[in-house]
Design a protein that fits this description.
Bound molecules: zinc ion
CATH superfamily of the largest domain: Ribonuclease Z/Hydroxyacylglutathione hydrolase-like
Distance between the termini: 8 Å
Mean pLDDT: 94
Number of domains: 2
Radius of gyration: 22 Å
Oligomer: single chain
Largest sheet: 7 strands, mixed
Strand content: 15-25%
CATH class of the largest domain: Alpha Beta
Strand order of the largest sheet: 6-5-4-3-2-1-22
Shape: globular
Low-confidence stretches: none
Number of helices: 11
Number of strands: 22
Length: 452
């Protein structure tokens, strides 16, 4: 019997973590932390698997909401075996070390969390076994018979570098977990490669399920649109702030800006980046001939960039026109993009351009949905937005028609919807039921077991 049990990431984009019991072999898919919560509330609920077999954890990609709770899982189950792609392993080393200082600021002793040390992370990283895309590998539970194994392959998910969808085969049953998946080309990465043939159960992300795809153009068209608006601001003497995730969106947007400047579509100007994003760019550069890159000649290191964190007086950003790429992507409170935006909104000539998905509860959503002249509560009381605000969409997740395309191509008998808000799950669920009547559909709920 195969059982599926969500420990987090069900009905929300949060601490993604799903447990599968494959006839006695316990496999965990992803182990993320909720980006907007702190302490134990940010973690998946590991108590749900206290008395169940726990043998492996497979990590789909290195974003915080899929990876960052891993050290806490290892504290609880020290014998667990971790497997990811080599790129995810390299990124995990950067991001997990980086998150120690952030956790120390956020967490106090009453939160019940034991913050891990840099030595623990070194040990954890060394213990990660890594597998390339399309390479078959085999998992065997501790209590299993010799012949009783599962076959697993990672498939390129086209979301960020090293991102994988995961196919598990066991006794003729195929389970496919999309992770975060993108069926369109970005600027650096090519689209996802789905496995051939049908699967029995599909665990499907639904991030853009409630977003009308008319608002999600292709990267190339949106880049032209971006250049047009950016030129206006820059030629008027203004500077542009772009909130981005350090992992993925920053590298893709930097490559897009560089290409636009090289072709003369966008005026050449100073570009500010920095911090962990620059270290992550090195991982993109090292792997550019290994991964599915559209143009392997793009080397991020060779794009001239100024250090975002080396600017002593923030007023300097407004002395000459510039473009600043700052984390976090959703402008979470007290991050660089949030603090800079507090200054940017006071600047008449300048602009904030948003480029990705914003969750409704985040400061980024508030900014993206306001306009010049509005009064908003953004760290103060009813401040007037003086700068221009413009929303762009450079998606790294599949638009909703593409999510349905995955269902069409993989012909599953069962679909479990994860990683989306209630509206997203409703829309995708209704469409699946309309077009694929035989499919058994489930919306994942934390702690609620589903038999596959
Ligand atoms: Zn992701």
């Amino acid at each position: 019997m195969i059982k599926f049990l969500p420990l987090g990431g069900a009905g929300e984009i949060g601490a993604n973590c799903f447990y599968i019991n494959l006839e006695g072999c316990g496999i965990i898919l992803d182990c993320g932390m909720h980006p907007q919560k702190t302490g134990v509330n940010a973690l998946p609920d590991f108590n749900l698997i206290e008395n169940l077999p726990v043998d492996y954890v497979l990590i789909s990609h290195a974003h915080q909401d899929h990876l960052s709770a891993l050290p806490f899982l290892v504290q609880k189950f020290p014998y667990i075996k971790i497997i990811s792609t080599p790129q995810t392993r390299a990124l995990a080393e950067l991001t997990l070390h980086n998150s120690i200082s952030i956790l120390k600021e956020q967490v106090n002793e009453n939160d019940g969390l034991k913050i891990y040390s840099h030595e623990e992370i070194d040990l954890l990283i060394q213990s990660i076994d890594y597998r390339a895309y399309e390479e078959k590998f085999y998992l065997r539970g501790y209590h299993h018979r010799e012949e009783d194994v599962s076959e697993v392959t990672f498939h390129d998910a086209g979301h960020i570098i090293g991102s994988a969808s995961i196919l598990i085969k066991k006794n003729g049953i195929k389970i496919f977990y999309t992770g975060d998946i993108n069926l369109q080309d970005q600027m650096i990465l090519k689209r996802a490669l789905l496995p051939a043939g049908k699967v029995d159960a599909l665990i499907l992300e639904t991030t853009y399920g409630s977003t009308d795809s008319n608002f999600i153009p292709g990267w190339k068209d949106e880049a032209m649109n971006f250049a047009q608006h950016a030129n206006k601001i820059l030629s008027g003497g203004g500077s542009i702030l772009i909130p981005v995730f350090s992992l993925g969106k920053m590298q893709e947007i930097l490559a897009a800006i560089w290409k636009l400047m090289e072709t003369g579509t966008l005026s050449k100007t100073d570009i500010y980046t920095g911090g962990i994003a620059s270290k992550i760019s090195r991982v993109y550069d090292y792997n550019r001939y290994v991964i599915n890159q559209i143009d392997p000649e793009i080397e991020l290191k060779s794009i001239v960039q100024k250090d975002l964190y080396g600017v002593e007086n923030p007023d300097d950003f407004f002395k000459h026109p510039c473009i600043a790429l700052a984390p976090s992507g959703m402008m979470i409170k007290n991050t660089a993009s949030y603090l800079l935006a507090r200054r940017w909104i006071k600047q008449n000539k300048s602009a904030i351009f948003t480029v990705g998905f914003m969750e409704e509860s985040t400061p980024g959503y508030l900014i993206a949905n306001s306009k010049k002249g509005d009064k908003i509560n953004f760290g103060g009381d009813g401040e007037e937005v003086k700068c221009t605000i413009k929303q762009f969409r450079f998606p790294s997740h599949s638009k909703r028609e593409d999510l349905l395309e995955i269902v069409k191509r993989l012909k599953p008998e069962k679909v479990i919807l994860v990683h989306g808000d209630a509206d997203a799950i409703d829309w995708i669920g209704a469409e699946i039921l309309k077009f694929y009547r035989g499919i058994k559909l489930y919306a994942a709920e934390k702690g609620k077991e589903i038999q596959l």
